[in-house]
Amino acid sequence: MRTSAAGNKWGPTLAAKAAALPPGAARGFTLLELLIVVAIIAIATVGVSFALRDSEATQLEREAQRLAALLESARAQSRSSGVPVRWYATPGGFEFEGVPPKSLPDRWLVDTTQVLGTAALQLGPEPIIGRQEVVLQSSRHPERSLRVATDGLRPFAVTSGEAP
């Protein structure tokens, strides 16, 4: 039984319209139309994936920011416990002496990160430490380096290039 509501029109239903088409008439998308849509979606997906890809410069910046945060964390632990904490670079990573084992990470996020020179930092327990710095570099792009440094009073910060 049909019901009538405001705005409804009496007329043939969609199924009745489709059944009224002559045999062989197009009732959907052609294969070519579907292939074009799939190709457009594929091109858009590739464009987005390249736009989101992490560049080497961004990875080095992330490593430097992470190291600055870890150094500040170790510095705070040293000040609160009164135990001297020392940071130094190792092949493939770094190590903290004076903090509980496994309390801080000891590996880089990216294997291509390396420390220039022989870096060792004394992080406390005194509230004011001497001027200290570490220069990070990517082995894939040796022309790019970042410096993680402190003047001894302020927190560690990331700057571009090697130390003067």
Would you kindly provide a written description of the structure presented here, covering whatever features stand out?
This protein is α+β, with helices and mostly antiparallel strands and 164 residues long. The chain has a domain at 56-160: minor pseudopilin epsh fold (3-Layer(bab) Sandwich). It has helices spanning 14-19, 31-52, 56-81; strands at 86-90, 93-97, 113-115, 120-122, 132-138, 145-150, 157-160. The strands form two sheets. It has a four-stranded antiparallel sheet with strand order 3-5-6-7, with helices on one face. A three-stranded antiparallel sheet has the order 2-1-4, with no helix packed on it. Strand 5 (132-138) and strand 6 (145-150) form a beta hairpin.
Gist of the model:
This protein is of the alpha+beta class and 164 residues long. It is 33% helix and 20% strand.
Tally of strands: 7
- Provide the CATH topology of the domain at 56-160: minor pseudopilin epsh fold
Basic shape: elongated
Q: What's the overall average pLDDT, rounded?
A: 84
At the fourth CATH level, what is the homologous superfamily of the domain at 56-160?
minor pseudopilin epsh domain
* Residue fraction in strands: 15-25%
H/I helix tally: 3
Rounded Rg:
31 Å
